[in-house]
Design goal:
The chain is α+β, with helices and mostly antiparallel strands. It is built from 14 helices and 31 strands. This is RPA-related protein RADX.
Length: about 700
């Protein structure tokens, strides 16, 4: 069947809500093919493939071929003729590659799936999974290959006992990470690994029922390294630990290009999570990557108990430590804890007792879902190494930034730095449509049609429009009262009709404003937009070649308070687009959120040929997820100090009902003169939100004196 001129619409379907069973839909096929096995199977119909890949990454099992929950074997095992792992290593040195004697081992670590398929590779199921197994003599790596992965991967879990026959031994692959197992106090045999495959030889895997496992086999007990939040600061960098906590924040799922693969469309999916355990007021900050557990990863939500095993500690200068996933990390949430080996750990039992003292309505006030989130916070000094750029935001030219914006994939997140000058600042606190025209007649999506529908503060609904003489308001220690006294009410109006009207207006008022080089002005008579422009921006705008007008704040940029009533809607909103349509998918709209005011910053590249718009979305409350771990050194709330610190000083504390008065936007904008002719380095967070929505947010702005390039 050929379909031409197919178009898509963002609107909801009128047909799908009436479908209750997708499999019951008729297939449009030739007569006589209705009962075709291929058509009824969950496999691609063309290109001779035998399996599907997950839509957004290659690490998650996808399709009906991945069996799980199969019963363990209850057959009688002959364990009188088994060999030990210690014997395998010594035998391998004597060039023996296959062994008739079986193995009896317990799984103590399980890695996520690895897909190694590529164009031209003639392997039906190019998958691989590592396990660490142990017996009474020590530990060794076991590799599950190809066709055995769909059959066994979901059946083999930490604690599972295996009886292995017809396995092979190969030299260990040296370029891979290994789990930390020192706490087992067992010898690790790292020179060889056990290989299980469907051919050469045909491996036989028997999953032993837990009821059949005997103490005299001498298999080691599982050991965990649970740590609480109060101990985290004392742990060394890269140390592995296990944690349990009550989730208070779940970020949206994002994607990042896999560092280990250079091929196209190879991404990791990850999200940020906060979880508390009662040992301190500070939460665990968790960077959790998909661990081949899609059902768990996509259902992490506030108010659930989360266990993450074998997380790695990341100690960072200037920010609180956080934990990131390793290849061996596994996650478990409420509903998946039953029967897990860790349930009897003392730390887990202590945590459960603490949760019994909590009240849901109080914890719910501290919860949030989705929105922009980036961690760790940028350091005080921007350092760029020409030799080792790992972990840094690469400094790129404006032309390279344009290329990144054009090639950004759905929910892909990247961090870049650009050098140049800030030439214009606009304060936005009311929505504008994507059709609004900028000074050059180009479409400027300051904020999309789905963007913020409310202003936060009533005091911002009708702000006093003001202009300021820019003789000396650049000092950061100017008090808000003094800044207010420097402002006077504007006597002119401005429209969005383009550069021509703006120039005529400037000419007519040149005498009245000759003592003001530039200043604050309302963008439109009917809007609440204040702005500042540098004195040279009008000329530079005429001479530059391109203005990348991608900046703006979207609904997807702002986190929402979690409620049980809106749980399904919020989960659907914060996750990636669904892999498959199901009748349960909610058609309810995402609950609106009050839109905090934000600043639209125009950055002119150092070559003065390309400018880009980026939104600056300051942290204003201490209970925001983005405030966790944020260095809160006091500053004077000037435009530059706010861009540098990322927050308005001091942060308001809703929990203590503090009456802190935050600076008004015009108070901040009146200090924007210090940006005039100032070279800066701007760290930007880019994320493709789907459709034509590309999020460009300012992470931090550095003066050139705060930049070090080695």
């Amino acid at each position: 069947m050929c379909i031409e001129k197919l178009s898509s619409d963002a609107g909801s379907s009128e047909v799908l809500p009436r479908v209750k069973d997708v499999s019951a839909l008729p297939l449009l096929v030739k007569q006589g093919m209705e009962r075709s096995v291929v058509l009824q199977s969950d496999v691609p119909l063309q290109v001779s493939r035998k399996h599907y890949l997950s839509l957004w990454n290659n690490d998650d099992p996808e399709g009906d071929m991945w069996t799980s929950g199969s019963p363990s074997s209850v057959t009688v095992l002959d364990v009188s003729k088994i060999t030990l792992l210690s014997s395998l290593e010594s035998s391998f040195r004597n060039t023996m590659r296959s062994f008739p004697l079986p193995l009896l081992v317990k799984i103590i670590h399980k890695s996520r799936l690895r897909y190694y398929g590529k164009f031209g590779l003639n392997i039906d199921y190019p998958y691989q999974a590592y396990f660490e197994v142990a017996d009474q003599s020590g530990t060794m790596s076991l590799v599950l290959w190809n066709e055995l992965c769909p059959e066994f991967y979901q059946r083999l879990n930490v604690g599972t006992v295996l009886y292995l026959q017809n396995y092979a031994l190969k030299p260990s692959y040296s370029h891979r990470s290994r789990p930390q197992m020192d706490h087992y106090r067992m010898k690790s045999f790292n020179s060889v690994e056990i290989c299980l495959n469907l051919r050469n030889p045909v491996s036989v895997i028997t999953v032993v029922s837990p009821k059949s496992v005997l103490p005299q086999w001498g298999l080691p007990e599982l050991s965990y390294q649970f740590t609480n939040r109060s101990q985290l600061d004392k742990l060394s960098n890269n140390v592995a630990c296990d944690i349990i906590g009550l989730v208070t924040f779940v970020g949206r799922v994002e994607r990042v290009k896999s560092k280990s693969n250079k091929g196209p469309e190879k991404f990791w999916t990850y999200r940020w999570v906060h979880a508390v355990d009662g040992s301190t007021d500070q939460p665990f900050i968790l960077e959790v990557f998909s661990s081949s557990q899609p059902e768990i990863f996509s259902h992490i939500c506030p108010m659930t108990y989360l266990v993450c095993t074998h997380m790695r500690v990341c100690q960072v200068e200037g920010s609180s430590p956080y934990l990131t996933s390793s290849c061996e990390t596994e996650m478990f949430i409420t509903g998946y804890h039953k029967g897990q080996p860790y349930v009897n750990d003392p730390t887990v039992k202590s945590f459960i007792q603490w949760t019994k003292t909590l009240k849901d309505n109080i914890i719910l006030q501290r919860t949030a879902v989705g929105g922009h989130y980036c961690y760790p916070h940028a350091p005080k000094t921007f350092t760029q190494s020409m030799i080792d750029a790992s972990g840094q935001a690469p400094l790129v030219a404006a032309a390279d930034l344009k290329r990144e914006l054009e090639t950004l994939q759905y929910r892909e997140h990247i961090k870049l730095a650009i050098q140049g000058q800030i030439t214009a600042v606009r304060y936005m606190n009311s929505p504008k449509s994507t059709e609004s025209q900028g000074p050059e007649g180009k479409q400027i999506p300051d904020v999309s049609t789905d963007a913020c529908e409310q202003a936060v503060l009533d005091t911002h609904n009708n702000p006093t429009t003001a202009e300021a003489s820019l003789t000396s308001p650049s000092s950061e220690d100017i008090s808000p009262n003094k800044r207010k006294r420097r402002m006077r009410r504007s006597g002119h109006e401005n429209t969005e009709g383009g550069r021509g009207q703006e120039e005529e207006q400037q000419d007519s008022e040149s005498e009245a404003m000759q003592d003001v080089e530039y200043g604050l002005k309302p963008q439109n008579q009917d809007s609440d937009v204040l702005s500042w422009e540098s004195s040279s921006w009008l000329k530079q705008r005429q001479e530059m070649s391109e203005h990348l007008c991608r900046g703006g704040l979207y609904q997807d940029s702002i986190s929402r308070r979690f409620t049980f009533d809106e749980k399904n809607v919020l989960l659907q909103w914060s996750n990636l687009q669904a892999l498959r349509w199901t009748p349960e998918q909610s058609a309810d709209p995402t609950p609106p959120v009050g839109c905090p005011g934000y600043y639209l910053i125009t950055i002119l590249g150092i070559n003065k040929q390309i400018a880009v718009d980026a939104a600056y979305f300051p942290v204003v409350r201490s209970n925001e997820p983005r405030a966790v771990g944020l260095p809160q050194d006091p500053h004077g709330n000037t435009m530059m100090s706010c861009l540098s610190s990322g927050f308005l000083c001091p942060l308001s504390d809703a929990a203590n009902h503090s009456d802190i008065t935050l600076p008004e936007p015009e108070e901040i904008l009146v200090t924007a003169s210090e940006l005039e002719d100032t070279h800066v380095v701007c760290v930007l967070d880019l994320c493709h939100l789907g459709g034509d929505k590309v999020e460009v947010l300012i992470n931090k702005v550095y003066r050139v004196t705060e930049v070090s390039i080695n």
